[in-house]
Design goal:
6% helix; mainly beta; 41% strand
Length: 420
């Protein structure tokens, strides 16, 4: 397992120990070195911090700072219960335990509100975060929202709709959208009043089978008739500037919808792709006119980046479009002579793993260097803003980019054997 927290990396090895490297501010594990030297089963990273779950059910957090030391005694707090999952955000770390209870560690934050501990003692199934607010979905179909009030931590205006029947919750930067078992959808957050617009009310009242959210506050609802209703809202919560309604053509319903931070892409039943922007930046994947001919048929999957996409076609070829995601592709495309088996996406950098065992990198060249072929047998890849690193078939770690973010100069110190 290889993860990034945004400015550093952590690798979980076969012996259950963890090694970290990258920006010293984000990678320093010296205070927990003995605790992560054995029996670690999983590692998470976000917002410049790491969290490791251990075989005894405890959680270890790092880097630590003096003012946080008292709050980071999670080993004792969680030692009696096994950990199911860890959710990390800019302002919090939330631990969901196997008994359905939730433990929240958070930094002080204006408007962050009070964690409703009584409602989080049992019955929690999943927890989702948008970085500063959280939504806990419980076994009874109810939702408990908390955190930064204006970003979705306050769901009081839709509380009645969240008491039961919720099956999934999706986050975006300023709120959440929930899908209910009756086919309706519920929004709350900074732009909540946009859900009162007649067009939105009508679209979300029934017949919704799936929901999608872009980081930039764009939304899409896949309807049971194969159509898609999509809308965007401004950061101040004002009326949507764009409403998109994709009607299904004969034998060509929408089968899946994908989103990056700024746009959406719909995969149609006939293998074609339709794209649209979630905001005003069409070049962030919402405008696919430059590759429209290649997206007319035979697409089987779409891999989103941050501002771009890559489509995988039936013959194993790939089609990238959007900002930064196409950089260097023409340099490696002629060498990709075998079908693509899978594609990794991170920060608008893509790695295509071919069926012959070779891997190729292209995409945003900011810090991370030029497009090229990667070591044979590459199977683990992770990236952050300033670098990209991977693990080859022999367990050797390699990287490229700005050394401050964990590129090559730091990789020489990493042991060779990595736990898959």
């Amino acid at each position: 397992m290889l993860v990034s927290n945004g400015c550093a990396y952590a690798v979980l090895q076969r012996n259950g120990s963890v090694e970290t490297w990258g920006n010293a501010r984000c990678a320093d594990s010296s205070q927990v070195a003995s605790e992560i030297s054995a029996n670690v089963v999983s590692v998470f990273g976000e917002g410049g911090r790491f969290a490791a779950t251990k075989a005894d059910g405890s959680v270890i957090l790092w880097p630590k700072s003096p003012e946080q030391a008292a709050d980071l005694k999670l080993t004792e707090a969680l030692s009696s219960r096994k950990v199911k999952s860890v959710t990390m955000g800019v302002r919090h770390i939330t631990v969901l335990k196997t008994d359905g209870s939730v433990y929240v560690w958070r930094l002080p934050l204006a408007e962050s509100g009070i964690v409703p501990e009584d409602q989080l003692k049992s019955g929690v199934k999943t927890v989702v975060s948008n970085g500063v607010a959280l939504a806990a979905l419980k076994d009874d179909g109810s939702v408990v929202a908390f955190g930064y009030a204006s970003a979705g931590g306050d769901a009081s205006k839709v509380a009645d709709k969240l008491k039961s029947g919720v099956v999934t919750v999706k986050p975006t930067s300023l709120g959440f959208i929930a899908l209910k078992s009756d086919g309706s959808a519920v929004l709350w957050g900074n732009w909540q009043h946009s859900s009162e617009l007649p067009e939105v009310v009508n679209a979300l009242s029934s017949g919704v089978v799936d929901i999608f959210a872009a980081e930039s506050n764009g939304f899409a609802a896949l309807k049971k008739d194969g159509s898609v209703f999509s809308w965007e809202v401004s950061y101040d919560g004002t009326i949507p500037k764009t409403i998109v309604h994709i009607q299904p053509a004969p034998s060509s319903d929408v089968v899946r919808v994908f989103s990056n931070d700024w746009s959406f892409a719909a995969l149609m039943a006939d293998g074609s792709v339709k794209t649209w922007t979630a905001r005003e930046s069409a070049d962030f994947g919402g405008d696919s006119s430059s590759v429209s001919q290649q997206l007319k048929s035979d697409v089987v999957d779409i891999i989103p980046g941050v501002r771009s996409y890559v489509a995988i076609k039936k013959d194993g070829s790939v089609v990238p479009w959007g900002a930064y995601g196409t950089e260097g592709f023409t340099d490696v495309a002629p060498k990709m002579t075998s079908p693509v088996a899978s594609v990794y996406s991170g920060d608008d950098r893509f790695v295509a793993h071919l069926t012959d065992g070779r891997s190729f990198l292209w995409g945003s060249s900011v810090y991370a260097g030029a497009a090229r072929e990667l070591p044979i047998g590459t199977y683990l890849v992770s990236s952050n803003y300033g670098s990209i690193v991977g693990v080859d078939g022999n367990g050797n770690v390699f990287g490229s980019g700005d050394e401050r973010y964990g590129s090559d100069p730091y990789c020489d110190a990493i042991p060779a054997y990595i736990k898959l």
